[in-house]
Structures are given as structure tokens and as C-alpha cells.
């Protein structure tokens, strides 16, 4: 990266933040800081850091396991300390927590800062513009479709295991108005992540919002499993992906068709490059080429994806040891207001009908006791707690462009 150091700020202290902190700190010329606003996590991480380094264990299919040992230069709950002279800020935490971090960082973010959602999830860019105002317009915003790794903390602040690394990661960038970032944001981020995943940055930021597939994958699978449920407890928790039914696969596919259709409509009306939006079957072929044993169609691809082996539906246990669906899990509480509702909001601005999205959304909001979609319009009482463009007053194609 040359003689100039990169100052990276990681927002968050979960699995992905641990993996990224360890990987980036081990590289030459990097100063890595971690901002955690959650309870006493900064203190806990610091305490462990006094005693030992952060070890990241990297597993790759068909390769020897490698170990990366390093430590970030600072773990803090002070936004002011964390932001001093920072080049790039990466949000590696759930979408519902972005607001708190943006509010804390707002006084210290300077025009020209690079802000990255990894993943930002749908509505990230709208929220950045809303919270940061004029400064937000002059920051470079990048958003990526998902986390680079499947990973888990095995010892807080000390050890993290990377179970799998994606081959490629799709993202888009919007340069800040009137200011060029000091360092190229894409090559800087690629350096910080290492050789994999290979970052593919193209098209309009809106395309990445539409390609945040969890928004329709998790919600459609949940709908497919429980929509006709009789309310009786089950003897065991059903498999989430590998237990997919053909009818649920068909819902996912229809919802994905609608998402592709929204992108097509947007490209036709505005001329924006939406080539980064593809059908979810193609997404699987790109992200999991080695893991899927039967690539015949979407149903077989999800059913036979080794990366999903054994994962079950979120459930609550009854007193007699049986299971009920847990609709307070993030597959609903995160993927609806910070996912499907945002996509539905973009479709509404475009004037595009989305009967399958509406079906999944209407059922999901009932299970959650929320109200977003009412009489085929996003006008329910809970819309302001979502990241739909409408909740920030963005209601025209120009405003979301």
C-alpha cells in the first residue's frame, strides 16, 4: 500500500468485526481501531487484549488451515477517539444498530470520509444521507451484499474462526460530491480484506440494496415453512435451508423475479447501471460454486448447499420439550424492516407491482405484530421504524437516484 498508512475504523464487536480486526491488523501499514458502543464490550475486549493477541483461524476447502495472529491498535467506546484521522469506516454489525453508530460518529465524520456497509443491507445509503445530511453527500459510500466470511467468535476479544470465505463479494460505490477520497476506496478495502473475497464493484448502489438476498431468502423460507402451519408444537425444529419445500423455492424464485423487474424498470427510467442485479439462482452459482452438489435448479441448489448443512428454523422450546416458531428472530425483525420493506418501498416509488413480495410481507408483518403495508401502500404505523426510502421523505425517483 506504499508508505502511507491506512487508518481503518471497524464499527461493531461481533463475529465479523473480530475476523476483520484480526485479518486487517496483521497487514503491513494498517492501523486498525474498533468502536463498540454495546454495554461493556470495549472494556472486555481491551482486558483480553492486555493478556493475549487476537487469533483468527482460517479454514479453506481443500487447503491447510492457516492462523493469523495480531491485534487492533485500539478498542474503544469513544467515537471521538476512534474517528481521529480515519480514512475508512466499515460497519460490520446488524442494520438495526447502524443508527446508533451514525449518531455517535456524526460530529466527527469529515467530508471525504469513506463509509462502507459490509453488509450495509437495504436502506444503508438512505440512512447515511438522512443522518449525516450535507456531510453525508460529501462522503464516499460503499455497500456490499453480505459479509465476506462465515465466521464465529470462539473467545471474545481473543479468538475467531473463519469457517468459509466467499470467492467474490459484489458491491457498489458512490463517490462523495465535490471531493475525491485520499486513497482509492476499492483497492484500499481489498488490501484490508486480503486476496479473497475478490471485490466486484460495479453499477448503482441501489443494485446492491436489491441484491441483499437475505431480505427475501430468509423471509420467503420462513413464509414457506409456517404459512399453512396449524399452530401445534412440533417434535423437532425443521431444517431451514436443507428442509426447503418446492413451494417455498418457487416463492423465493418469484420474489427474486420481482426484484430483477424493479432493477430493470429503474434502469429503463434513469439510465442507471443495474447490471449488478441478478436472479437468486445465478447468485448461488456465483457465491457457492464449490459447495452445491446439485445445480439443477434453485430448489436443488439450496437443498444441497454444504454451507447450510444442519441449520434449523429459529424456534422457541415449550415446557414439554416441543418447538414453536420464533418470529422474534432476526430473520424477521431485521430482514423485514431493513430488507423487504425497503425493496417494497423502492418498487412503490417506481410504480411497479410486486404481488409475491406483498404476500410474504403481509404475512410476516402479521406474525410480528407490525404494520408496514396497508391497502397496498407503505403507509402503516411502523414505517418510520424501517429504512424504507419513504421513512426519510425520499418519495421520487430523483431522490433515490
TrEMBL record:
SUPFAM superfamilies per UniProt: 6-phosphogluconate dehydrogenase C-terminal domain-like, NAD(P)-binding Rossmann-fold domains
Superkingdom of origin: Eukaryota
InterPro entries named in the record: 6-PGluconate_DH-like_C_sf, 6PGD_dom2, NAD(P)-bd_dom_sf, Opine/Lysopine_DH, Opine_DH
A Pfam family hit: Octopine_DH
Gene Ontology MF terms in the entry: oxidoreductase activity
Occurrences of domain Opine dehydrogenase (ranges): 203-366
Protein name: Opine dehydrogenase domain-containing protein
Origin species: Pocillopora damicornis
Amino acid at each position: 500500500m506504499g508508505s502511507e498508512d491506512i487508518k481503518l475504523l471497524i464499527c461493531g464487536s461481533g463475529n465479523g468485526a473480530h475476523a476483520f480486526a484480526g485479518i486487517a491488523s496483521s497487514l503491513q501499514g494498517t492501523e486498525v481501531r474498533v468502536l463498540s458502543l454495546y454495554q461493556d464490550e470495549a472494556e472486555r475486549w481491551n482486558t483480553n487484549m492486555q493478556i493475549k493477541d487476537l487469533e483468527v483461524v482460517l479454514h479453506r476447502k481443500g487447503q491447510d488451515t492457516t492462523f493469523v495472529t495480531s491485534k487492533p491498535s485500539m478498542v474503544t467506546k469513544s467515537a471521538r477517539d476512534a474517528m481521529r484521522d480515519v480514512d475508512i469506516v466499515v460497519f460490520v454489525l446488524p442494520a438495526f444498530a447502524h443508527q446508533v453508530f451514525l449518531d455517535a460518529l456524526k460530529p466527527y465524520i469529515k467530508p471525504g470520509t469513506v463509509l462502507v456497509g459490509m453488509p450495509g443491507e437495504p436502506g444503508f445509503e438512505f440512512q447515511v444521507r438522512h443522518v449525516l445530511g450535507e456531510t453525508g453527500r460529501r462522503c464516499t459510500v460503499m455497500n456490499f451484499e453480505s459479509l465476506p466470511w462465515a465466521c464465529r467468535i470462539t473467545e471474545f476479544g481473543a479468538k475467531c474462526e473463519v469457517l468459509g470465505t466467499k470467492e467474490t463479494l459484489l458491491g457498489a460505490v458512490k463517490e462523495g460530491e465535490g471531493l475525491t477520497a485520499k486513497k482509492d476506496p476499492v483497492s484500499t478495502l481489498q488490501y484490508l480484506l486480503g486476496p479473497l473475497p475478490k471485490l466486484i464493484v460495479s453499477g448503482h448502489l441501489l443494485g446492491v440494496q436489491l441484491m441483499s438476498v437475505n431480505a427475501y431468502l430468509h423471509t420467503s423460507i420462513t413464509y414457506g415453512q409456517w404459512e399453512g402451519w396449524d399452530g401445534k408444537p412440533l417434535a423437532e425444529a425443521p431444517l431451514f435451508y436443507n428442509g426447503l419445500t418446492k413451494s417455498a423455492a418457487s416463492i423465493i424464485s418469484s420474489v427474486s423475479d420481482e426484484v430483477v423487474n424493479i432493477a430493470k424498470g429503474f434502469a429503463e427510467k434513469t439510465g442507471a447501471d443495474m447490471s449488478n442485479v441478478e436472479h437468486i439462482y445465478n447468485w448461488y452459482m456465483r457465491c457457492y460454486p464449490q459447495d452445491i452438489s446439485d445445480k439443477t435448479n434453485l430448489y436443488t441448489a439450496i437443498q444441497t448447499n454444504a454451507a447450510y448443512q444442519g441449520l434449523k428454523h429459529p424456534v422457541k422450546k415449550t415446557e414439554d420439550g416441543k418447538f414453536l416458531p420464533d418470529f422474534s428472530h432476526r430473520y424477521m425483525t431485521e430482514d423485514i424492516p431493513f430488507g423487504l420493506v425497503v425493496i417494497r418501498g423502492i418498487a412503490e416509488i417506481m410504480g411497479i407491482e410486486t404481488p409475491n413480495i406483498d404476500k410474504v410481507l403481509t404475512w410476516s408483518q402479521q406474525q410480528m405484530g407490525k404494520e408496514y403495508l396497508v391497502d397496498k401502500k407503505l403507509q402503516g404505523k411502523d414505517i418510520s421504524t424501517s429504512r424504507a426510502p419513504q421513512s426519510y421523505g425520499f418519495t421520487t425517483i430523483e431522490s433515490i437516484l
